[in-house]
Amino acid sequence: MSSRIKLPSEIPIEKYPPPETFINEALSCVREAGDKGIILRIMGGMGICLHSEEYKQLWEKLARLGEKVFTDIDFASYGKFRSKVFEFFRSRGYDIDKKLHMHYGMKRHMYFGGTVPMVEVFFDKLEMNHTISFNKRLEADSPTLPLSELLLQKLQIVKINEKDIKDAIVLLRAHDVGTTDKDTINLEALAQAGLTSDWGFYYTTTTNLQKIKEFTNGCVVLNEMDKKIICERIDKISNFIEQKPKSLNWKLRAKVGPKKKWYNDVEDWIFFRSESQ
Predict the structure, then answer these.
(1) 56 domain-assigned
(2) Considering the entire predicted model, what is its pTM?
(3) DSSP string, 8-30
(4) Which CATH number goes with the domain that contains 120?
(5) Which of 101, 117, 162, 173 is most deeply packed, by most CB within 10 A?
(6) Host H or E run for residue 211
(7) Which pairing describes strands 185-186 and 177-178: parallel, antiparallel, or unpaired?
(8) What's the DSSP call for residue 194?
(9) 160 Cβ partners below 8 Å, 6+ apart?
(10) Parent domain of 163
(11) What does the pLDDT look like over 203-214, one tens digit per residue?
(12) CA–CA separation, 262 vs 253, rounded Å?
């Protein structure tokens, strides 16, 4: 690995970029990539933060933002932009680890050492515990992923942690549910993402919705109105998913249930780092 490349965890807090630097860089990348005909959309907690700016105080009260706030910037793009994305980030002063790039380059790119310590770009889909396709969805919102995909990115995590639950709470408090992508969590998009055809994805998602609801009801930071609105929106999502017709494969897999593993393990790419030093 190049000596210039450092992971976010290796950078001391006194030298770490402030959250504003991450946000400005993310927005600048989306805008400037767009000028070059490249679609980039911001994912993850930063995407939720940017799409829920009117609830910044709630975010702060939940103490979701740790000492370093953001560790990287995650983007979604289409595979047809892969080579252009590579040239784009290299032109902005980012470097790569060659072994990581060779291993993952078709699915995702990892860039280091530019304006922020690390940038990741996922192409066509997010493959973690479950798979979220970006097919024809990146045009539905900007500068972030659509709200449905931002929520699913958290709900697909089998071992969801408190930080991810708080991200989901902010998103659910800031946005109503409906059947459009315009500042709304699109119920149809949730269903079409695989929840009616993939029982495992459905099981993880609905399980996490209940965990978020339980956390919400026990959270002293949230007032009663916050709790009421968040829980009502969770119930709307859950009821909508339950009422949608399910595929035959879904029904057959449901009979087996969680006795059989229903999710994919997430590969720890840091393993490759030690090999390249």
Answers:
(1) yes
(2) 0.92
(3) GGGS-GGGSPPHHHHHHHHHHHH
(4) 3.30.460
(5) 117
(6) helix 199-218
(7) parallel
(8) I
(9) 154, 208, 211
(10) 146-260
(11) 999 999 999 999
(12) 9
